[in-house]
Amino acid sequence: MERLVIVTGANSGIGLALCERLLTEDTGVHLCLACRNMQRAEAARSALQASHPGAHVDLLQLDVGSVQSVLTAAQELRARYSKVDFLYLNAGIMPNPQVDFKALFKGLFSRNVIHMFATAEGLLTQQDRVNSDGLQEVFTTNLFGHFLLIRELEPLLCQSDHTSSVIWTSSSNARRSAFSLEDIQHKEGKEPYSSSKYASDLLSLALNQHMNNQGLYSSVVCPGMVMTNLTYGILPPFFWTLIMPIMWLIRLFTNTFTITPFNGAEALHWLFLQKPQSLDPRSKYHSLTSGLGKNYTQPRKMDVDDLMSKTLYLDLIELEKEVRRDL
Ligand SMILES: NC(=O)C1=CN([C@@H]2O[C@H](COP(=O)(O)OP(=O)(O)OC[C@H]3O[C@@H](n4cnc5c(N)ncnc54)[C@H](OP(=O)(O)O)[C@@H]3O)[C@@H](O)[C@H]2O)C=CC1
Ligand SMILES: CC(C)=CCC[C@@H](C)[C@H]1CC[C@H]2C3=C(CC[C@]12C)[C@@]1(C)CCC(=O)[C@@H](C)[C@@H]1CC3
């Protein structure tokens, strides 16, 4: 039977590469590209249909950073479809990134150099802002908008005799110490990206605990270090041109430098082929590329605990009530 796959942030980078790979895997797949910019979404659909003539590709206007847009988009999805098989929560932002060059230089000569290049730990800060809903923009885009979307799509995701998969594009940059239950939106700190990705790891665990019995399964993925609009935004273009040979060299020493969106989409694609019941809710599934260019997926245990994940889940439900009240 035709499977319906919704991908947020599908017009570029890892999301678009995933769509290409899914259509190559299964020409019968029914894709829905959920994007904030319809011109870019149209361009993505044209590219997909050029390489896969006759592919079934729908478009949906969705800005996950806006509560009203999520509610409107979910209403449209409920009107269009009777069930959802895969929901890839992939849209994400890292606004105004700053690289700590002192830490980078120090790290280059430390024993942690591989870890530093795999996770960017201690290297990156961002400048967040408050959106028109009065919420932190990174938190809303990377986490809360997607949470709201799941809640709104429950009738399509949770059905008897049917399982559905929700797959978060998280990151190895997710770090417990960047996240606080006292400040889930990360209003205070300078690492909203890391905080939001750690929150998605926690939330995925909670979703499994609350919703497996309704047929919904959640997983998290790290695509590795991929050259996309998000990464190109971190340094000026001339700098990237300068260090690109170094990036390919680093790839020989670490399997986390997947570099191309096709490689980065490896674990997202791999999860499409698995039975959701067979997956480990406490593992993050990493896209990896060997020095010789072989792609593979590897589960790695996450640094998450049940109490934190449950508390975050309840806090998000509370926040959901508040934003609905304020609409
Ligand atoms: N690149 C990397 O090395 C890594 C990336 N990731 C994660 O992968 C995911 C995909 O990013 P990547 O492909 O790298 O980067 P891109 O910038 O290419 O893709 C991000 C996508 O998200 C969309 N998006 C951003 N904000 C919104 C919004 N408010 N509503 C709807 N769509 C939105 C973008 O749309 P638009 O074109 O309109 O901006 C774009 O399609 C992100 O979640 C990112 O955090 C994780 C680890 C590493
Ligand atoms: C090669 C030299 C000398 C400099 C480049 C340093 C950084 C710009 C680069 C090193 C590790 C990278 C990295 C990411 C972005 C670019 C780096 C900081 C990510 C943060 C991108 C988004 C993610 O989610 C992470 C998994 C990436 C981790 C590694």
Automatic annotation (TrEMBL):
Keywords on record: Endoplasmic reticulum, Glycoprotein, Lipid biosynthesis, Lipid metabolism, Membrane, NAD, NADP, Oxidoreductase, Steroid biosynthesis, Transmembrane, Transmembrane helix
Pathway: Steroid biosynthesis; estrogen biosynthesis; Steroid biosynthesis; zymosterol biosynthesis; zymosterol from lanosterol: step 5/6
TM segment ranges: 230-250
SUPFAM superfamilies: NAD(P)-binding Rossmann-fold domains
Catalyzed reaction equations: 3-dehydro-4alpha-methylzymosterol + NADPH + H(+) = 4alpha-methylzymosterol + NADP(+); 4alpha-methyl-5alpha-cholest-8-en-3-one + NADPH + H(+) = 4alpha-methyl-5alpha-cholest-8-en-3beta-ol + NADP(+); 4alpha-methyl-5alpha-cholest-7-en-3beta-ol + NADP(+) = 4alpha-methyl-5alpha-cholest-7-en-3-one + NADPH + H(+); 5alpha-androstane-3beta,17beta-diol + NADP(+) = 17beta-hydroxy-5alpha-androstan-3-one + NADPH + H(+)
Highest taxon above the source species: Eukaryota
GO molecular function, one term: estradiol 17-beta-dehydrogenase [NAD(P)+] activity
UniProt subunit comment: Binds to the short form of prolactin receptor.
Protein name, per record: 3-keto-steroid reductase/17-beta-hydroxysteroid dehydrogenase 7
Organism: Knipowitschia caucasica
